[in-house]
Amino acid sequence: MTSRRCDSPGDARNSSHATMLEAANASRAAREGACGSVSVAFPITMMITGMVGNSLALLLVYSAYRSKANRRKRSFLLCIGSLALTDLFGQLLTSPIVISVYRADLRWERVDPTGRLCAFFGVCMTMFGLCPLFLASAMAVERALAITSPHWYANHMKTSVTKLALAAIACLVLLFALLPVAGVGQYTLQWPGTFCFISTGDRDVPGNVFFSLTFALLGIFSLAVTFCCNAVTIKALVSRCRAKPPNRQWERLTVETVIQLMGIMCVLSICWSPLLILMLKMISTQTSSHHCKPTAVALVPGRDLQVDCNFFLTAIRMASLNQILDPWVYLLLREILLRKFCQVASAVSNCSLDGRRETQTALDALNKQTIQEDVIEKE
What we know:
Shape: elongated
Number of helices: 12
Order of helices and strands: HHHHHHHEEHHHHH
CATH superfamily: Rhodopsin 7-helix transmembrane proteins
CATH topology: Rhopdopsin 7-helix transmembrane proteins
CATH class: Mainly Alpha
Helix content: over 70%
Number of strands: 2
Strand order of the largest sheet: 1-2
Largest sheet: 2 strands, antiparallel
Strand content: under 5%
CATH architecture: Up-down Bundle
């Protein structure tokens, strides 16, 4: 911090001390505001929930993959397993860092004095953000091909091809995430100082606009591909059901798969759309993410900036929830659980019907007895 030039050494010391107190108060106020919005319990809960859900999903996928009854779904199961594995690694690599920053009183410089951890965190955020989006698109494309072109799918779509495609997605996304490390774009500390992500408004940094804009457009493109492929799959299923009675096993597999795809697509859209749209807005308005640092927010009196920073933090949290919700969508929408739910609903319905029948029978008997008593009294 550079002190202002004053007429006397005493004035200089007083001015410097006042400036330091002002900055300290601003930083303290910013940290208190951030702590007020979320505590360390939030990232801890997210990490535990994500680890449990993704671990269970991996176990179920492995069990289903080894089952002979799911041979037709092995490519799809590989995609589901890759999605759960990606989300699990994303939680394991990023959540401990966030928790450490909270334990350091929201002072990133205590945890990362060299700045290298910020770049690592940004790479993880970018890679484990784009990978689920592309994996969801791959699952949607795979199911669309399996439903619309079953003969071509059976002859050409082998598990080896699926593994190669998944490896290519992971490598390409990793190379893209490493661009700021190579000098194209930049990862910066974001509000409230607990994570690093893509800088959206620094046009002075070489390739920064290209990198941030490409990230947002790739995310939107993957969501569009997922939506279109799922729409094609549902349309093909409806057409086939109208044309001829489907095989029960085929119907069970396809219905289960489409429900899972729709669930994952809804989760992706809800979690990622706010962040991607906000990034496009910040790029177009040349809003720099540096303005969302804790000290800057406290020192700048603009209300709009505070609102944008809070909304950006909310969008980041929603995108992070995707890693937690993805496996639970698979767990909750599995065919076995759906069948159990249907059985429970049917049992409740049958019990209700039986109860109604017994009640109606009792009422009929009571009415019949009353009529007989009235006839006896008249006689």
